[in-house]
Amino acid sequence: MIESNQPRTLFEKIWDDHVVYAEPGRQTILYIDLQLVHEVTSPQAFEGLRLAGRKVRQPARTVATADHNVPTTDRALPIVDPISLQQINTLRQNCREFGIRFYDLNDRNQGIVHVIGPELGYTQPGMTIVCGDSHTATHGALGALAFGIGTSEVEHVLATQTLLQQRPQTFEIRVDGRLPFGVTAKDVILYIIGRITASGGTGYCIEYTGEAIRRMSMEERMTVCNMTIEAGARAGLVAPDATTFDYLRGRPFVPQDFDAAVERWKKLPSDPGAKYDRLEKFAAEEIQPQVTWGTNPGQVVGVGGNVPDPTAFADPADQKSAAQALDYMGLKAGTPITAIQVDRVFIGSCTNGRIEDLRAAAGVVRGRRVAANILEAIVVPGSGLVKKQAEKEGLDRIFQEAGLQWREAGCSMCLAMNPDKLEPGQRCASTSNRNFEGRQGKGGRTHLVSPAMAAAAAVAGHFVDVRQLNQ
Amino acid sequence: MDRSNVDTDQIIPKQFLKRIERTGFGQYLFFDWRFHDDGSDNPQFELNRPEYRGATVLLARRNFGCGSSREHAPWALEDYGFRVLIAPSFADIFYNNCFKNGILPIRLPEADVEDLFQRVAAHPGYQLTVDLQGCTITDAFGLAKSFEVDAFRRHCLLNGLDDIGQTLQHDEQITAYERSRGMVVGGR
Questions:
Q1: Using CA atoms, how far apart are residues A173 and B21, in angstroms rounded to an integer?
Q2: From CA A186, how far away is CA A248, in angstroms rounded?
Q3: Antiparallel, parallel or unpaired: β A300-302 and A290-292
Q4: Which candidate in A73, A150, A426, B183 could, as Cys together with B178 as Cys, close a disulfide (CB 3.0–4.6 Å)?
Q5: Regarding predicted confidence, which is higher, A454 or B151?
Q6: Pairwise CB contact (< 8 Å): B69 & A29
């Protein structure tokens, strides 16, 4: 299986290192180093274990938290929705029964599962990580092979600590050059999805390379990897380097002999001459702040552009999809993006709910006021630790003085399973990852943007190029 | 369903993800498209048309099942009565989830899918026969297409095999893997 004399990619090294059993014509049994568990996609998995009389094979390699449907208002108050409450209580009981560490609502480390994994040092280079959530690709930013799975697979990993996997193909996405001022990681990944489409990565594991990626901070890389699934690829990777090691050093769950671990991790990046099945190159200089106009993340344009004309697409399926999207979004072809007024603003999510995201947004709203037409603008930190850090830096006051609400950690209005949601017809500038129909509330219209662009829309009342606002 | 990029948020909207069972999701399938706000059927929606009631094969365009990993999507499709999905492409996680729930997702070239859409339009009450043994799709009008599916998954689907049981036959290898890496051997 392992041909160590051949140059291998980062993906191939991690894959080869985790093969438990392989046989031609069937899926490989792959060892899973870490499983992250949350309340929505796990109850049926634990129930399955109970029905079959099975145990969790490696409780110490399993970590749980509640994030998807937790309220972001005062945690001292009871949860109003009885079904949400039941789901969270069920997870708490399951964790107790099966001996799994659970970060409960009142735990200072509670937060979005993809924020707390890296933050606590659970996520490490070279690992295989799964979670019953498609944004698990986030952890690939640290050089871990991480992907989302379904509930039956959650149960499979709980019972066996392995997963049956088809080996994906490899796809290098290289972003050369330096990003222009005011252009962020979110803009990079939206731009890439716009180019390769929402299904362009299907069947691949993507590795992001190039100067623009190398220069990114750990948190920026997480934003890029997070949205890999929006291009159809289950996993996105960035090779570990000094940025990765510096980020991890000192975090609670990193290996005790950290320096020895770093020496191992240094061997992970792709060997010179390693071959990928596909390569796409992009120039960082050409990317401007992005705004989605449609109902999938690939329907995106630079802030200086206009809502496209569906008939301008070459492919009939794209034409139809664009026409359906404009109808749902209540937009006319040819409208300048900057002429689109917004009603609500959401800053947060596993894509953009980290401290750097909040700093960027706060930097834009500092000393300004939310525009009169904005009905509500909320900032939801990705975790309890992010919230605490932001408050230490005074970001909460900056947001509140500008008229934005400061909330407790959770997934919140990214998927609107909790009370934070759009009303029909409302238009939202959102730092989340999906602009699907009804994602943020039935009939709600979502435009995906970076934290700085969302903050700029909050103070302007419509989309605006944040670079001009700052002048 | 003549749409591309049908995402799992459409297949089963999030307000129905709070149930802690695997069953009973069919009533919520495509909820926001299928029903008006007052709870009445939306007659424009494909599944509500009389000729498509009781359908067991769902035909769609590319990238079906994209987005969230929620297995509630195949649970809802299966509970509603679908057994086979045909599209030019499926999202990876969704594709996997289907096999775990007795649903066969079939990938066909875009031109073949277009041909099927035309046949559906031309023949009211159109029926297809999907044979998983022989990996063929046939109809009463001379259609005969073959499709590809992973041999192991086909075997599991045909025999209703449980993945976990299959994997646990390799428990020795899992234990050996854990030992070779100095891990605590699990499952004891």
A1: 40
A2: 22
A3: antiparallel
A4: B183
A5: A454
A6: no
CB atoms B173 and A151 under 8 Å: no
Cα A195 to Cα A187: distance, rounded to the nearest angstrom: 12
Instruction: Report the gap between the CA of B152 and the closest CA in chain A (Å).
Output: 5
Judged by a CB distance cut-off of 8 A, whether residue B36 touches chain A is: no
User: Which pLDDT score is estimated for A1?
Assistant: 45
Per-residue pLDDT, A4: 60
pLDDT score of B152: 85
- Scanning B53-112 for CB atoms below 8 A from A yields 61-63, 66-71, 74, 89-93, 96-97, 100-101
CB-based burial label for B180 (10 Å; 0-12, 13-18, 19+): exposed
SS (HEC) of chain A: CCCCCCCCCHHHHHHHHCEEECCCCCCEEEECCEEEECCCCCHHHHHHHHHHCCCCCCHHHEEEECCCCCCCCCCCCCCCCHHHHHHHHHHHHHHHHHCCEEECCCCCCCECHHHHHHHCCCCCCCCEEEECCHHHHHHHHHCCEEEECCHHHHHHHHHHCEEEECCCEEEEEEEECCCCCCCCHHHHHHHHHHHHCCCCCCCEEEEEECHHHHCCCHHHHHHHHHHHHHHCCCEEECCCCHHHHHHHCCCCCCCCCHHHHHHHHCCCCCCCCCCCCEEEEEEHHHCCCEEECCCCCCCEEECCCECCCHHHCCCHHHHHHHHHHHHHHCCCCCCEHHHCECCEEEECHHHHCCHHHHHHHHHHHCCCCCCCCCCEEEECCCEHHHHHHHHHCCHHHHHHHHCCEECCCCCHHHCCCCCCCCCCCCEEEECCCCCCCCCCCCCCEEEECCHHHHHHHHHHCECCCHHHHCC
CB within 8 Å: A155 and B177: no
Interface contact flag, B9 A438, Cβ < 8 Å: yes
Tokens of A270: 């792709």
What is the C-alpha separation between B188 and B186, in angstroms, rounded? Answer: 6
Average pLDDT (B90-106) is 95
pTM: 0.94
Give pLDDT < 70 ranges for chain A: 1-4, 470-471
- What is the total residue count of chain A? 471
pLDDT value at residue B86: 98
Nearest CA to B83 among B105, B115, B50?
A: B105
Does the model's ipTM exceed the 0.95 cut? no
Mean pLDDT rounded to a whole number for chain B:
93
Backbone angles phi, psi at B159, to 5 degrees: -100, 5
CA-wise closest residue to A73 among A425, A413, A441: A413
pLDDT digits (tens, 9 = 90+) for B3-27: 999 999 999 998 898 888 888 999 9
Asked whether A112 and A418 are in contact (CB, 8 A), the reply is no
A120 contact partners, CB below 8 Å, separation of at least 6: A109, A251, A252, A253
Q: Which helix (DSSP H) or strand (DSSP E) does residue B170 occupy?
A: none
User: Is A415 in Cβ contact with B14 (below 8 Å)?
Assistant: yes
Say whether residue A25 is in contact with chain B using an 8 A CB cutoff: yes
The confidence band for B162, taking pLDDT boundaries of 50, 70 and 90, is confident
Residues of B in contact with A52 (CB under 8 A): 164
pLDDT > 90: what percent of chain B?
80
